[in-house]
Amino acid sequence: MKRLIVLGGGYGGMRILQRLFSGSLPDHIEVTLIDRLPFHCLKTEYYALAAGTISEQHIRVPFPNDPRLTIKYGEVTKLNLENKQVEMKNEEPLSYDYLIIGLGCEDKYHNVPGADVHTLSLQSVDQTREAYKALNNVPPNGVVGIVGAGLSGVEVASELRESRPDLTIKLFDRGDMILSMFSKKLSKYVQSWFTEHGVEVVNNSNITKVEPNMLYNHDEAIYCDAIVWTAGIQPNKIVRDLDIEKDNSGRLIVTDHHHLPGDERVFVCGDCASLPHPPSGQLAQAQGEQIVTVLQALWKGEPLEPLPQIKLKGVLGSLGKKHGFGLMGSTSITGRVPRLLKSGVLWRSKYQNG
After folding, report:
1. Helix, strand, coil % in the chain, rounded to nearest 5
2. Does pLDDT of 350 surpass 70?
3. Is residue 117 in a domain?
4. Fewest 10 Å CB contacts: which of 47, 63, 172, 271?
5. 125 and 46 in contact (C-beta within 8 Å)?
């Protein structure tokens, strides 16, 4: 028997498991999933969980139930690629024949003093639970600061406005206009939505320091009852600590077949992989599909054929429960339609995958 270990039951890991157990797993392969949680979580909905507009049950999806799958709950502490072992906290190391690294990401604090200690994170479900508690315990008419006006920052700000209309919400962005990765038309639409709904957007900001209940923008102190950090991500520290080739963001360099150069049995999926597209759940799922194709070829002893270039369908974001925005190909869409589309994508992720 050969052992395949999947590190992380995120979007990529989940898609790989689903495809393997839909009839493409040879008899001589046993699969082990290592994760901290007993279920997959829809991370794209963490912003709503933190704001208190949905319950945690809403974002849980069970892992596949298959006798060929062993699930080991625990914390990975180190990857020993030379000895083909996964080291875990308070556990004996696990040996593998094939490995899929899908350990996800962490916040990137850009060396801002105090940011890692005095801000709330939405990168894990545990951190999001803490954020929910802190945000919903903010006193009436309190102030919440959100650092970073990318997709995550915009969604948590809009959802919090819907959940807590009493709050003063300040959204800090380094650029002239929020959502700088989108078209100007779309960015202006979202910024106008915030203006109309009483969310203060602080453009051209530069957060220089964070202290308890205090945010410093260009060294000017701003009091906040709670501070949420959504200003960038980086790969899991275990990946960053690996002594192998990485890109400028700390993500692992992979081949066109998603494995490490020189080791076709170690694959990297999701936020840990260096790819032409920005990290996303959609990208991780597409990677997962292709990784299963490569694994099937390896197990059959077939040569690896070139894989098609991954093409993403688009990006969707929400502004509360009734409005949204998105990019479908090169077309910007705003209003109720993208919000409905995102709800449909969420339904499909939860019920078809689960």
Report:
1. 30, 30, 40
2. no
3. yes
4. 63
5. yes
Tell me how many domains the chain contains.
2
CB 314 within 8 A of CB 328: yes
Contact 61, 39 (CB under 8 A): yes
Asked whether residue 351 carries a pLDDT value surpassing 70, the answer given is no
- 92 with 139, same domain: the answer is no
Query: Is the pLDDT score of 347 beyond 80?
Result: no
Per-residue pLDDT band at 330 (split at 50, 70, 90): confident
Closest CA to 170 of 227, 230, 112: 227
Residue indicated by tokens 């909905």: 45
Q: Going along 263-328, which residue ranges are E strands?
A: 263-268, 315-319, 323-328
At residue 323, the 3 state secondary structure works out as strand
Q: What does the radius of gyration of the chain's CA atoms come to, in whole angstroms?
A: 21
The model carries a pTM of 0.93
Sign of the Cα torsion 350, 55, 116, 218 reads positive
CATH of the domain at 271: 3.50.50.60
User: Residue 154: what pLDDT?
Assistant: 96
Sheet of strand 315-319, all strands in order from the earlier edge strand to the far edge: 315-319, 323-328, 331-335
